[in-house]
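re: ur question from yesterday

yeah so i grabbed the chain u mentioned. its 224 aa long if i counted rite. heres the sequnce exactly as i have it in my notes:
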Amino acid sequence: MTLIATFVLLFLYFVLVYCETTVPWYENLPAVAMDYKVHVDPGKEDCYFQYVNPGATFYVSFQVLRGGDGMAGFAVRNPAGVIVHPYQWKASSDYQDTSATGGYYSVCIDNQFSRFASKLVNLYLTVIRYDQWENYNKEVEDMNLGVDNFTSRVMNVERNINDMIHFQHRTKSHETRDKIMVEDNLRYVQRWSLFQIVVIIGTTVVQVYFVRKLFDIKNSRPRV
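ran it thru and got these structure tokens back, copy pasting raw so excuse formatting
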């Protein structure tokens, strides 16, 4: 019986370890923020999946940094497959769900309307679990510590910090897009300036050559 009990315990241990490794590593974290720069080929659609805890606040934003007309399609589907943010052809857009359904949300970037130009897109996602602060408050109350005001202030600070992070991300995305646009314009101006310089020099050389040809006098001897 001792060997059988030992075998059962080892089996349960490995089952628990395996089950723990199959869930996302960030499932128990109070907040998760992810920032990506993705490349979408012309005529293609790329979708990305983000796990969201039940009741958490899910926020996602995108902005086209480079390519074509500077716009792309953007849509969000909840874990049930319902489109909660319909497709819109824009340069930037965002979506927020304050009481998200648990599961994997699908975020899709559509570039099918652009047949020749690829797009560089900045994608920003956050998952925030405000219920973690409530659990902390309950634990403090169980310890008979009167810090309700402190906990509420900490929660307000946390919310304000998250709002500031979102604002900073949007500002950073606009700054990155402006920088890329300036660099593209600089390369465009340099290329055309060099081309025009070459054309002007070539035209000048040709004009000088033909003007000199007009004044060429051939030596000829008079016939006797």
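noticed a couple things. The helical segments are 2-22, 131-142, 148-214. also The longest strand covers residues 31-40.
anyway ttyl
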